[in-house]
Here is the input.
Amino acid sequence: MPVQALLIGIGAICGVSTFLAILMVIADATIANYGDVKIKINEDKEVEVTGGKPLLSSLMEQRIFIPSACGGRGSCGLCKVKVTSDAGEYLPTELPWITDEEKKDNIRLACQLKLKKDISIRIPEELFNVKEYLAEVVSLKDLTYDIKQVTLKLINPDDISFKAGQYIQFKVPEYEMTAEPVYRAYSMASHPSRKNEVELEVRLVSNGICTTYIFEHLKAGDSVTINGPYGDFFLRDTDSDIIFIAGGSGMAPIKSILNDMADRGVERNIVYFFGARSVRDLFLLEEMKELEKKLHNFTFVPALSEPQLGENWKGETGLITEVLDRHLKSGENVEAYLCGSPGMIDATKEVLIKRGVPEGLIYYDKFG
Amino acid sequence: MTEGITFYAIFFAAIFTNNILLTNYLGMCSFLAVSREVKTSVGLGMAVIFVMAVTSALNWLAYRYILVPLDLVYLRYIIFIVIIAAFVQLIEMIIERVSDSLYASLGIFLPLITVNCAILGVSLFMIIRDYHFLSSFFYGLGSGIGWALAIVAMAGIRQKMTRSRVPKGLAGAGITLIIAGIMALAFMGFSGMIKIS
Ligand SMILES: Cc1cc2nc3c(=O)[nH]c(=O)nc-3n(C[C@H](O)[C@H](O)[C@H](O)COP(=O)(O)OP(=O)(O)OC[C@H]3O[C@@H](n4cnc5c(N)ncnc54)[C@H](O)[C@@H]3O)c2cc1C
Ligand code: FES
Here is the structure.
């Protein structure tokens, strides 16, 4: 009887599927249900979140922002948090970022640590100062063929306090290249005194999620979401001579620091080495000239590694490390601030140390 | 049931002479995708061993006590897949609950396995070959070990290969398939030693 056989078949599939589905529902409600967990922050503040999710995003829901440049993929190592309660073993995904020293202190990556029970953490007080901002794109301007200046006006809240050199995180909404929002770090190039505005200098990374969004989709008038400020790449208040070294979009935080020094009338000896490939990679030369006039003793040294024949380049040539090696006679009484690609930073750091700049006085932001 | 085959013969045959990956070419997609590093391929291999062994036993029970009595043998494909998927999902939840580090080293591979055709292949072969319960379990376990062996060997070769110059057109999946072919030839050397089908 074919009809009966068919019904038995359908019945069997439904039966088995229903049984398994019920099993899954039960499992979801028991095994995968971690209930609400409490996060105790700095021994005084306590928040309650749904368990099972990473610490980083749970804190973000509570509007507490831990620095992160990779948006939680475990590839930047910035989201370090000190955990003062037992939080289980380290995960293989955390280990590349955690030094032995940090292990003793129980420092964990907030994006990898899933919340399964109550936890106590300790974070720097200034992170409570980090906010999420709604902003509007005022303008997008080409600085070079692959660097754009993005100016944002803050809408809500409408002002930001930051130290020159710090960075914000830019939220990329879902679009062709990403199925979920991602966050990327960009240094603020604007003056800290202009509290209603944030200016970024973004270099296009081919096939990059965030930079493609900024270069190909973002228009003046669009709304964007950022959070910040983060970072400890800011000028230390000493009398030492200052060396800045940057390449590409590493210009951004240093421009902010220089303008801030000019505003505050800081009188220190400053040399700024800027590495680029050829003339078409240079930008903001006029502004640097202005700053040379405004600041007490400031020299801007652009250096080209591959100047093209037709460009008629009269300035320094060579890799930034070579140029630095030629200029810097002694590292005595010197403080250095580096910003750019990890490769450039590691290489120049080596030269500085060789010249006697103490490692502890070399500050940097790696754009990796 | 072929006369005289004991379950340990089946077990060893599944590892060497009838290696599911190298003689049946099943489970190729994850084999190609996750064989770049020995460490990760060991993780995936372990997960496959575990899932193959347990699902072959579960599917055998479902086959013997649900499908055969109800005369629904033709539904085995759907039922097997559903059981495998549910089992993998469940195990993933349990591992995540009990151990973070086990989850990080094994759990992340489990979703990949649901769609691994070698897992379904094992369940289907054991039915075709009419194995007993115990034989089925050891067949699953052996096949899993065989699959893990093949992927770890491949990962070892590929790790070495990062330092050699592969012609551009062959880089990636191309050269991997060629190596898999040569490995299969090598495994053919075992054939005839034990027969299971
Ligand atoms: C503290 C900090 C401050 C930063 N400030 C700035 C800034 O002021 N201006 C700026 O332009 N960028 C800055 N960056 C870099 C920025 O956060 C992004 O990493 C970069 O813009 C690429 O993002 P994406 O989403 O487009 O690329 P992704 O989609 O993340 O990456 C695509 C591919 O490019 C590679 N990649 C990632 N970043 C780079 C890079 N910088 N150069 C070359 N390849 C890369 C990745 O490995 C990946 O393979 C900063 C980073 C940090 C950590
Ligand atoms: S957010 Fe980048 S490593 Fe955690």
About this structure: Chain A touches chain B at residues 5, 8-9, 12-13, 16-17, 20, 23-24, 27-28, 31-32, 88-93, 114, 116 (CB under 8 Å). The domain at 241-364 of chain A is CATH 3.40.50.80 (Rossmann fold).
